[in-house]
Amino acid sequence: MQQQDEAHYVQHAAEGDIHILRLANPPVNTLRAALRAELVAGLNAAREAGAKAVVIVGTGRMFSAGAEMTEFGKPRVPPGLHDIAEEIARFPGPVVAGIHGGAYGGGLELALACHARVAAKGTKLALPEVKRGILPGGGGTQRMPRLIGPIPALRMIVSGEPVTAEEALKLGFVDEVAEGDIEAAAVAFARRALAEGHRFVLARDRTDKTAGADLAAFDAEVEALLRRSRGMLAPVNCAKSVRAALTEPFDQGLQTERALFNELVNSEQSLALRHIFFAEREAQKVPGVPPGTPTVKVAKAAVIGAGTMGGGIAMCFAAAGIPVTVVEADAEALQKGIERCAANWRRSRNAPPEEEIRRRLSLMTGTTDMAAVGDADLVIEAVFEDIGVKEKVFAELDRHARPGAILASNTSTLDIDRIARATRRPRDVLGMHFFSPANIMRLLEIVRGRETSPEAIATAMEVGKAIGKVPVVVGNCDGFVGNRMTGKRGPQIEKLLAEGCLPQDIDRVMESYGMAMGPLATGDLAGLDIGAAVRRARGTVAPIADALVAAGRYGQKTGKGWYRYDENRRRHPDPEVERIILETSQRLGITRRRISDEEILDRLLLPMVNEGARILEEGIATRASDIDVVFVHGFGWPAWRGGPMFWADRVGLKEVRDRLARYAAATNDPNLQPAPLIERLAAEGGSFAGLDRARSPAAAAG
Ligand code: NAD
Questions:
Q1: How distant is the alpha carbon of residue 546 from its chain centre?
Q2: What tens digit of pLDDT does each residue of 563-600 get?
Q3: For residue 382, how far is its CA from the centre of ligand 1 (angstroms)?
Q4: Residue bearing the CA closest to ligand 1, atom 3
């Protein structure tokens, strides 16, 4: 094979009369403008050189991760994907995509515009644009249905979920699954096609899968799919665009696709989703923990405590194939805990096959002997929330754990430094705060203590990702980031109820904002007695919530809390709750009034934003965008709303400051006094995003 030139983003090579164009924009070959231009030039050059076929492959990890997101929302620089597709169509012989690793979004659209696709075994292929609030705007919504039929295409595009090369072969948008070197396989495919004189029909010219499509069946499928994405615009436009592939000629369909894309690309929702996409990546950059920080390889883990959290945490390790020892104080609790893990797997929505459940259970070893942690590389403690108990457990871990093992606590509120001091190795101690249910919620707050080493943080992040979590490093304080912020919402909920709201009003507003579940229904799920115990310990009161607990209303576990629950666990407003609330208003001398939905939303979100600002001031969170990641992955905040700090930026911090001051005066809640950081940013005309940019290492270096 001979290298013909040294083009920057596309390498051009030839093997006889088959030319090879290699995408070379590390690390993931995003289709930046310069690459697109070189691809067009490469196709042209191949045609002029008399090439019989062209193979397009990716260098490095994958074929292509698609569009360069930093180009979104900026003026379009030609050539676009459509121009490349035109160039492919103009080429006299077959243009074959050789795909390995992954082809996502525009990367897959590029491949769909080719005459044929050869994919390496295990390659992932997806049109994930919907997850960024947009749609595949490079012809994907028009070509995919023509290749695989309307309903399979609709499902791929509306869900954004990947399929494997093997599935794509069955669906019909991959022509061959290859083993070994993808470039060699794609060249061999092209050579065979040439030898056989095979005539390929481009997707745009195919009608066999779309002609006479059953539109009623299609619309029924759309309705079923959209039910799951309440409030989101992108899935709606995705479906409309795929439908155009059934009712319009190809070129007109492309225009429809473009128009629907343009509606989305600068929408609030797409901005929010892109914000979260970048925020998740930013959160992986931790001050003082540079890339390449050595980590402890976690070949074996241990969990102390087999209760609600310990069991869920052990499930995460076993599901990821990491052996885990579960240590309990109580033999009966141990057995029950492990049985609960099995039961949880069996009744989960995507229950794994029985064989897989047995494999996972075989990775879990239960014991009541603390010495069993001796061969663990990471120990996570999840015993009762009691500092005395935790100190005792950590002193024991110090005796039994191997030197260099990482020791983590799942505490929600206790001081990590104090826990670390119970050992002689505080550098190896940190918090790993999982969210309930631990096997499902993706957020993992990693709590850095005063002495925690960079190696311990890097290990916790690495293992967190390995078990499917989204780790966010936070500082040590009561409640850390998420619970500390939601904690400030509680007093406003009490006040809203006393002033005129009912539980269903508050939950309705939050659920129509997009939360999976309103705060009061969530309280019923977690148990109202837990909050009451915390208030007792802190000497605070919540007259209405306390009255509910006094009336035996602990939430779902007693069949009644803020709501009454029927035998299907469906919630219903309960006259007894209304009576308790009205009596409390009267007792407090409050004349109830009608409260608007806007006010409800403000009074629930503003206290969290205000506390978020204090958290930033104190350095408990590194960036405002980290806080948004915490809420999306730990608190059911809809990603398409971008998180509380993003919300505040969109409202504008001056407006946020004014509203906070107004509600502070009206409700006499000192928590609502605008935080100094909000005062400062409001005065400067700044934003949380601007603060993040100013603080980021890249900005500092540049
Ligand atoms: P839990 O009461 O369900 O479980 C605690 C378990 O620890 C019990 O089974 C108990 O027998 C065992 N245990 C107590 N002392 C022990 C010891 N010395 N050695 C071994 N085992 C011992 O409690 P939980 O809800 O799982 O909470 C555990 C921890 O996780 C607490 O620190 C809590 O604050 C934290 N947490 C809880 C949640 C939640 O929503 N429940 C969320 C995040 C963090």
A1: 35
A2: 999 998 899 999 999 999 999 999 999 999 999 999 99
A3: 4
A4: 307
